[in-house]
Specification:
By secondary structure, the protein is mainly α. The protein is built from 25 helices and 6 strands. Helix 9 packs antiparallel against helix 10 and helix 21 packs antiparallel against helix 25. The longest helix has 19 residues.
Length: 462
């Protein structure tokens, strides 16, 4: 794409960083990050504070369903609220990454507290050690139910979890045999849940992991060329040290944070090396990724996921910065666009990239974004209007277009898009701020231009 509006290179880079490592940032936030510099901002992202900036007790007081977490809808609403308001954006974005990789659906689990607990695990461990993550995942009640490990017994194997642990969660197809799958499943016999009772009349009580040694196959196993009386943790110890696992993690992180296209060999090598050099820790891998040239140069190389569209737009306009009615209904917007968080379609998760876009989902994306940025009651929209008003007593149509592109992104657009936007703006002539009526018309035309911009092809990328 060709950038047709003059923007600060550093602001553009920081905006790119926050789109990928968070859920976008408003201009006043970007200016704060600019004051401290790119590297310091990356340091801040990589080391989230214990205080996430959200008063959970107040949120639960306003949203009773979130306090209860009986089903997936309020659990989803709670997550959207966190995406909008968290003081630890990368921590929240990592939770979304792991949810897409370790896809687990409420539809089968039917316990909102269990799926919320899993997301909290991703939030807590998302930048930590991958071995620890896999151990906790293997003990996670939602995952145990989702992939049937509660029916994996010493005398009656269920291979579902063992197979997906190798295929989708750590190594990928072609790096293990069918015998490895069976041995993996044997090692995880006895890993189950303690208390799967009916939900009613008590509601979605917390589920707990239980290890049953009497149901565990303690015989000798041969797994990926190693032999022993392996239990689940022993299997994970073998998995995390495989070269294939380093490449797998590197590829998945690259495709989520950098580009929808396949990762080049040098990027995989750099990220995989960081994985092994750090003894399987994710934070050093993300450090390499976020400071790399391939990341810095990857602006607008990814199609936004529906959850990113919704969270980023709400952050931009400043909505739901505190509890108010309508959060649950707004949460459904991501579902209408094709991504219902906590309910991925299969264990493979969602098909991403350009597959997010079809004629129906595109209309939903445009309509949602247009409704939000066209609402002059939103503080974020008013801030854009005020910033443009400070540029002078009058603006030409081209200055209106360039100013809006700058403040909504900065968003570079192709020449034909820019020409079309300027043509639309010229229908109203120059903008003036001399009278009260002029100022009202100025605000209306800014909001109208923002609506046109969010309808462009370029806005669908991040």
């Amino acid at each position: 794409m060709v950038a047709t509006n003059e923007i600060s290179t550093e602001i553009s880079l920081l905006a790119h960083l926050m789109r990928r490592a968070g859920f976008s940032a408003r201009r006043e936030e970007l200016e704060r990050y600019q004051a401290q510099g790119y590297d310091a901002t990356v340091d801040w992202l990589l080391h989230p504070s214990e205080d996430d900036g959200i008063d959970q007790d107040i949120v639960e007081r306003y949203y009773i369903d979130i306090d209860d977490l009986r089903n997936s809808d309020p659990t989803n609403a709670w997550w959207l609220y966190r995406m909008i308001n968290t003081a630890n954006p990368l921590q929240e974005k990592m939770a979304l990454f792991w949810h897409g990789l370790f896809a687990t659906a409420y539809e089968k689990i039917e316990n909102g507290r269990a799926v919320a607990s899993q997301i909290e695990t991703f939030r807590r461990l998302g930048l930590g050690n991958f071995r620890t993550m896999l151990v906790e995942l293997s003990r996670d009640p939602a995952m145990i139910i989702w992939l049937d490990n509660d029916t994996n017994h010493r005398e009656a194997l269920n291979e579902n979890y063992g197979r997906e642990l190798l295929e989708l969660f750590s190594m990928g197809v072609g790096n293990y045999t069918e015998d490895d799958v069976k041995e993996c499943a044997r090692a995880f016999t006895g890993w189950t849940i303690a208390n799967r009772n009916a939900r009613y009349p008590w509601g979605p009580f917390p589920l707990e992991f239980e290890y049953r040694p009497w149901d565990h196959d303690d015989s000798v196993k041969t797994f990926l060329g190693e032999q022993g009386r392996f239990n689940g943790e022993d299997i994970i110890d073998i998995i995390v040290k495989q070269p294939a696992t380093g490449r797998f993690i590197a590829e998945r992180l690259y495709n989520f944070f950098v580009s929808d296209d396949p990762a080049p060999a040098d990027a995989i090598e750099a990220l995989s090396a960081a994985y092994f050099e750090s003894n399987y820790n994710i934070r050093p891998v993300m450090d390499v990724l976020l400071r790399s040239e391939f990341f810095r140069e990857s602006g607008y190389a990814k199609v936004k996921s529906p959850s990113e569209v919704v969270a980023a737009i709400l952050r931009l306009v400043g909505d739901f910065q505190e509890p108010r009615p309508g959060l649950l209904e707004t949460t459904f917007e991501s579902k209408y666009m094709g991504q219902e968080l906590l309910n991925p379609p299969t264990v493979e998760g969602w098909h991403t990239g350009r597959e997010w876009i079809d004629s129906g989902s595109l209309v939903g994306r445009v309509n949602f974004a247009s409704d939000q940025v066209g609402d002059l009651n939103h503080t974020g929209v008013r801030d854009i209007v005020d910033r443009l008003a400070r540029k002078g007593a009058a603006l030409t149509p081209e200055q209106l277009v360039d100013g809006c592109l700058d403040l909504i992104g900065p968003l570079p657009v192709e020449e034909k898009t820019h020409t079309s936007l300027v043509g639309k703006a010229m229908n109203g002539g120059n903008l003036s701020l001399e009278t009260e009526a002029d100022r009202g018309e100025f605000a209306r035309r800014v909001a109208e231009m923002l609506q046109l911009i969010v309808a462009t092809r370029e806005f669908q990328f991040c």
